[in-house]
Amino acid sequence: MFGSQFSLYQFFVPLFACLMIAKAFSRYFRHTITVRELIVWVIVWSGVSFGALFPDFSMMWLSRLTGIKSGFNALIFFTLVLLVYGCLNLFVKLEEHERRLTELVRSIALKDFNQE
Amino acid sequence: MKIIIILSAYNEERHIADVISACQDEGYDDVIVVNDGSTDNTASAARNAGAAVISHMINRGAGAATQTGLEAARRVGADAVVTMDADGQHQAADINSLIECLTNKEADIVIGSRFLKKENPIPFVRKIFNNIANIITVLLSGIFVTDSQSGMKAFSRRAIEKIMITSNGYEFCSEIIREARHFGFKIKEVPISVIYSDYSMSKGQNFASGITTVFKLMIKTLMR
Q: Where are the beta strands (DSSP E) in B92-202?
């Protein structure tokens, strides 16, 4: 299940994922991310760890799930979907920050206008 | 009837005084210039020409500046607002026909359409972008207009009180139409004249900003 032999990445990738999960919990307890975001991060990094620990099984499962015959192609497809989703999410968040900045600029401008 | 003219201006020191004078010549003395973070002398030129000036400390875009102007108009108790470009491409003489539609209760929002006047020498690229934007506006709002990206519009008091523009960039034009649909406002288009000079062409939407506008409109359509 671990593949023909245990590689170095199968140790370091889950270790890195554990650190990321710990960091996500830390951010959650400091109220900088929501519970929904915490769950997403835990699922994503757990998935990455699982994929690194059990590469053959993961590829086979992914290939069955998507119907794409090659597990590697399915992985690329999923990665692209995740990247597009991430970009859109970033865009929406950036727009929200832009909106807040505009509100601040506007309120200062109108305050000065009222005082004239 | 208290009518306020709103000019959103970014680095328009060369033309702003002429645009304000043209409005005053038509009998519209209440002009508010929203100086959108200009780095030149737009604000002082506008003040010297007799306009009230609201200054954004940094540039936020045409949509943000228009919303600031609408909020200012609301605070001073405007009965109607007309927005115009500050680069001199719109004609102050057209304000009358927009206001007439409001006073006759024909609409809550009147759009000055460049495409309803055949004589207007509109560049081909602008026609293409406008048609794409019109299609996206239909998807966004369900309302078809011939000039969804026109900067010349008139708003009734009812519309001034309700419309809230959240877009900073040029996509605000389509957002206004979506808002109109949301609040059940009547929209009417009237033909207006437009003058395209090298200057106004360099100031308005270019190919890159047109792509950005279309992209943002599409995202907003998909993720609303």
A: 109-113, 153-156, 187-191
